[in-house]
Every structure is written in structure tokens, then in C-alpha cells.
From TrEMBL:
<dbReference type="InterPro" id="IPR001638">
    <property type="entry name" value="Solute-binding_3/MltF_N"/>
</dbReference>
<feature type="signal peptide">
    <location>
        <begin position="1"/>
        <end position="22"/>
    </location>
</feature>
<protein>
    <submittedName>
        <fullName>Polar amino acid transport system substrate-binding protein</fullName>
    </submittedName>
</protein>
<dbReference type="InterPro" id="IPR018313">
    <property type="entry name" value="SBP_3_CS"/>
</dbReference>
<keyword id="KW-0732">Signal</keyword>
<feature type="domain" description="Solute-binding protein family 3/N-terminal">
    <location>
        <begin position="24"/>
        <end position="253"/>
    </location>
</feature>
<dbReference type="GO" id="GO:0042597">
    <property type="term" value="C:periplasmic space"/>
</dbReference>
<dbReference type="Pfam" id="PF00497">
    <property type="entry name" value="SBP_bac_3"/>
</dbReference>
<comment type="similarity">
    <text>Belongs to the bacterial solute-binding protein 3 family.</text>
</comment>
């Protein structure tokens, strides 16, 4: 009898541990895209994406762990079940929908150009950009845009946005195309960005490239998680949690871009 009770107790504790484990989700993010996601000097992940993700987990009443993943491997990592969701400022596009499913947008998106101050660049046609060195982060919709719109430019792609910014600041690029909010942050708050560069031209809002906004990616068969995330997103919009996080990083509501 004692052995039976002990076996039942062990089985119960194993079941409880399994249930607890099932309630722990992993969030994949890049960690190299400030102010949306970054790693501090101690290696801790932070930023708007991270804080929104943790707020959603709290609303869903689940434990969450945030892990860093290079951008080029971020969708393969989700498919391989290294994490359960991607919260990394990923534009919702038709091409990506072939691989993953998306939640409702958690903010709107636009892209823009940045160039050296007083660059004199005003012609944003392929002919106007012919031979110019244009940078973008590889594997992004910005890189897709540059390749499609400026095929005769000298296109340079980089693993991270920070590396694009570095070459821009050092005069190795004539122009770059990037997500509007991080580039605005760079040219107004970063010492190198403020010294060298400015945003030019009109915002790039073509749905072919910026999609339907920025969403959380999950595996295509994980509809239950997608619906829970949508419900949690609605809840943090309604209770003010989203706005509190937003205001920590931005002067406008990026959910509406107003």
C-alpha cells in the first residue's frame, strides 16, 4: 500500500510539473532592433516588443521566457519550435503568411529613407538612385523594397539594423531604407545618427511591402494561441497597459500612428 501511495504521489507531482511546463511559453525576438527590442550591457532583453509580449503573457496568465534569435533565422526557429511566438516588429505580409500565422496587428508600420544631412537626394526613382549605395537589413521587407524599386543601385545588405546605421554614419552609404520609428529614433536620439543623418522623402506605406501592420507570428497550426494573443492584445489596449508601455518609448500612439 505504501508503495502504491508513493507511486501515485510521484505520478501526481510529475503531472503537476508537466502542466506547469505546458503553461510556460517562449517568445522569440531579435534583440538588435532598438527601441523595439535590444539587449542591454548585461545581456538582458528589453524594448517595446519585449514589454508588450510580457504584458500579453501576464494577461493570459502564463509564464513566458524571452529568447534572442538572429533575424535571418527567426521564422525557421519558430517552425522548429525553438519558441512559441515571434514578437520582433515583423510586418504582416502575404509572403510570410505562407510560413506562419499572424495575430491582429499590435502596431502600424511605415518605412522611410535616411541619408546624410544636406545630401540633396530628391529623386526616388530607380534612375535617380542608379549607382548609389543603398543599405538595408537583410531578410526584411525593407530589403525587398530596395531590390524591387532600386534594382540599378549598389545594394548593400547587413545582418542587423545597427550595422546599416554604422555604415550610414561612416559615409559608406548614400541612402538607407528602414522602418520609420527606429530610424526616427536613431536620427533624433542617437549621437551618431543626430550628427550625420536625417529622414528624407515621403513615408513608404505601400501594402505590398509594409503589409497590414506589425503582428505576432505563431506556427500555422497554433490557432488557439493566436486567438488567446488577440484577446490579450484587446485587453491590454482597453485597460491602459498598452498605452503605458507605448508612452515609455514613443511620443505618438504607434497602434494608430496618431
Amino acid at each position: 500500500m505504501k508503495r502504491m501511495l508513493l507511486a501515485l504521489a510521484l505520478a501526481g507531482s510529475t503531472l503537476l510539473a508537466a502542466n506547469a511546463s505546458a503553461e510556460t511559453l517562449k517568445i522569440g525576438t531579435e534583440g538588435a532592433y532598438p527601441p523595439f527590442n535590444y539587449q542591454d550591457s548585461a545581456g538582458k532583453l528589453g524594448g517595446f516588443d519585449v514589454e508588450i509580449g510580457l504584458a500579453l503573457c501576464e494577461k493570459m496568465k502564463v509564464e513566458c521566457e524571452v529568447v534572442a534569435q538572429d533575424w535571418d533565422g527567426i521564422i525557421p526557429g519558430l517552425i522548429a519550435k525553438k519558441y512559441d511566438m515571434i514578437i520582433a516588429s515583423m510586418f504582416i505580409t502575404e509572403e510570410r503568411k505562407k510560413q506562419v500565422a499572424f495575430t491582429d496587428p499590435y502596431y502600424l508600420a511605415a518605412m522611410t529613407h535616411a541619408a546624410a544631412k544636406n545630401s540633396g537626394i530628391t529623386d526616388f526613382t530607380n534612375e535617380g538612385m542608379k549607382g548609389k549605395a543603398i543599405g538595408a537589413q537583410s531578410g526584411t521587407t525593407q530589403a525587398d523594397y530596395v531590390a524591387a524599386v532600386y534594382p540599378d543601385a549598389d545594394i548593400k545588405l547587413y545582418p542587423t539594423q545597427d550595422e546599416v546605421n554604422l555604415d550610414m554614419a561612416n559615409g559608406r552609404l548614400d541612402l538607407q531604407v528602414g522602418d520609420m520609428i527606429p530610424l526616427l529614433d536613431w536620427v533624433t536620439k542617437n549621437d551618431d545618427g543626430k550628427a550625420c543623418c536625417e529622414l528624407i522623402g515621403q513615408p513608404i506605406t505601400d501594402p505590398k511591402f509594409v503589409g497590414e501592420g506589425v503582428g505576432i507570428a505563431v506556427r500555422q497550426d497554433d490557432n488557439d494561441l493566436r486567438e488567446k494573443l488577440n484577446a490579450a492584445l484587446k485587453a491590454i489596449r482597453e485597460d491602459g497597459t498598452y498605452q503605458k508601455i507605448n508612452d515609455k518609448y514613443f511620443s505618438i500612439d504607434i497602434y494608430t500612428m496618431k
